[in-house]
Amino acid sequence: MNSQSNLKDIKNFNYGIEKIFDEAQDFLPINGTDYVELYVGNAKQAAHFYKTAFGFQSVAYCGLETGNQEFCSYVVRQDKITLVLTTPYHADHTISEHIKKHGDGVKTIAFWVNDAKQAYQETTQRGAISIMPPKEIQDKEGSVVLATIKTYGDTIHTFVERKNYKGLFLPGFQKWESEYNPPSKGLKYIDHMVGNVELGTMKKWANFYANTMGFANLITFDDKDISTQYTALMSKVMTNGNGRIKFPINEPAQGLKKSQIEEYLDFYGGAGCQHIAVATDDIVFTISEMRKSGVEFLHVPGTYYDTVGKRVGDIAEDLETLKSLGIMVDRDDEGYLLQIFTKPVEDRPTLFFEIIQRKGAKSFGKGNFQALFESIEAEQAKRGTL
Ligand code: FE2
Fold it and tell me: Which of 77, 182, 258, 275 is 20 to 30 A from 384, comparing alpha carbons?
């Protein structure tokens, strides 16, 4: 054995040790978000919206034509982000009850794992409520193992083990060939997904992610951090072992008027996903394109940009361009981030999207969180629900 291969073996050995150590610490290794499924009133039209307005591409479909007589699902994808849009065919289906209660919203946040059975066992033995025990499904492209547990409200987590599958999405889906293929708008991956939970339950759900799923608390915002003269919120950001999954959990805080988190809970009919943050490498391009396609964003007060230079220091982007597009900037110890928030993507003031570009910053800017809170409160006042 020559010295070079020795060196390689030593490196592999060390890597192995680190890996075992990491896995021993992390009882729920997650490779990333597998997909997000939304239950919606009209999946065909929702899919068209996400293609046109957000730049997603058609991937797969199931429905009457594929032998599914209960519901149809359209799968759209942009880089690492996969959305599934599902609509039931009949009023007495459980999905119909979900839509009646919540309107359009996130049902499933699915995790890509190497071993779905193990993920299910590790979490349920630590107290997670089972929705579906591990189940293997297959077609000619191979097999997938799925298992599902409950989280806040009617939202669920599905573990997806797809190492023995070569198909486009999941067994039961066929390729969705479309003549309408708008180009990508530069969205890359899901950065984080936020849950709004009932008053007094933030700690319970942060503990659920800590104890049942092995997540850590990255940062906590209290009602003094994020507030206006009328309302406030509290938030705990939970993250998994490799940092690829980040879930801030918000709860309303007591204030003089109704908090925007309470407004969400009223209209959604309980706890649920408040926003999906998606990352881009070029936020100026992404937001220019999304605005051209009709996506509406929250208004950032012009005065925000008067002090932004002082707060965040030097940045590569032109401040006037950011101002014209309504993109916000914030900084932490490691760098800065650029972000912007859409208005709700359905008529109920519930789910919205965030577009984020991280330039070193790994955290969540407190300044922008506050600016977002104020922008939503201004919208809330227009709706007469403050
Ligand atoms: Fe966010």
Answer: 275
Q: What is the pLDDT of residue 307?
A: 83
Q: Do residues 114 and 201 both lie within one domain?
A: no
pLDDT of residue 18: 39
pLDDT in tens, 140-156: 999 999 999 999 999 99
CA 341 to chain centroid: 13
Residue 371 lies in a domain: yes
Q: What is the mean pLDDT of residues 248-272?
A: 91
Rounded distance from Cα 52 to ligand 1 centre (Å): 23
Of 175, 210, 243, which residue sits at a domain end? 175
Distance 221 CA to ligand 1 centre (A): 13
- Higher model confidence: residue 292 or residue 330? 292
- Reduced to 3 states, what is the DSSP secondary structure of residue 47? helix
Q: How far is the CA of 262 from the centre of ligand 1 (A)?
A: 18
Is pLDDT at 369 greater than 80 in this prediction? no
CA 357 / ligand 1 centre spacing (Å) = 12
Centre of ligand 1 to C-alpha 193, Å, is 7
Distances (CA, A) of 256 to 222, 232, 349, 386: 16, 9, 21, 10
Give residue 274 CA to ligand 1 midpoint distance, Å. 9
**Same domain assignment for residues 198 and 71:** no
Confidence bin at 379 (pLDDT 50/70/90): confident
164, 107: one domain = yes
CATH of the domain at 316: 3.10.180.10
279 and 343 in a common domain: yes
Domain boundary among 132, 150, 175: 175
Distance 343 CA to ligand 1 centre (A): 13
Which helix H or strand E contains 204, and what residues bound it? helix 202-207
| pLDDT tens sequence across 92-128 | 999 999 999 999 999 999 999 999 999 999 999 999 9
Listing DSSP states for 284-347 in one string gives: HHHHHHHHHTT--BPPPPTTHHHHHHHHH---SS-HHHHHHHT-EEEEETTEEEEEEEBPPSSS
- Please tell me the distance between residue 248's alpha carbon and the centre of ligand 1 in angstroms: 8
Given a contact cutoff of 8 angstroms between Cβ atoms, the answer to whether 234 and 257 are in contact is no
